[in-house]
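hi! just following up on the protien thing from before. the input was this:
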Amino acid sequence: DTYILFGDPATNLQLQPTHALPLEAGWNLVSFNLQPLESSAPEDVLAPIEGKYDLVYAYQADDLQDPWKIYDPTAPSYVNDLVSMNETQGYWIHMTEADTLAIPGNPPTSTDIPLWTTTGGWNLVGYPSAGAGTLPDVLRDHGVGEDFSLIYAYHADDLQDPWKLYDPTAPGYVNDLTEMTPGWGYWIHVSADHTWQVDY
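and the predicted 3d structure came back as:
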């Protein structure tokens, strides 16, 4: 996290926690680890990169009929069913040019993230913590037990091999995803419904 100064320096200078997300041109799979400071509406959360992105997708596994949610800044409002953004979700953001998204917010103490089996077991989530968590412990010891089979991340800055994988049944050399880190979005496949507890 970084901090930005706000307020009148002559009277009241405060430090505001800010999560800065470097975004590459093209698709990025990201999340943020702070509760948005004021509005959670996509147009407000994404205001720092206005004009530099053209699509945002989220995947809400508890919506069996229509899990994919979209925000298109140029579309009529009735087209967009992604109406809020928060620290529990992962987001696909398509950038028309590289930039950094700075999100001021408040650190959560702890976050409960539901993991559902309703859409085949796949969930697209964030990791709202201040630091990295080692796999598999970060899931196994925080409410998920052994009921997960695959985790994927997409690191857009790795042009040679952007997809990262953790498979708890695979030999260690197969897994190039060894920890969960704030800032990335994660696809997690579960075999039972659980609530994942993420401590900040």
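Residues 4-8 have pLDDT under 50 and may be disordered.
The chain is about 5% helix and 40% strand.
cheers
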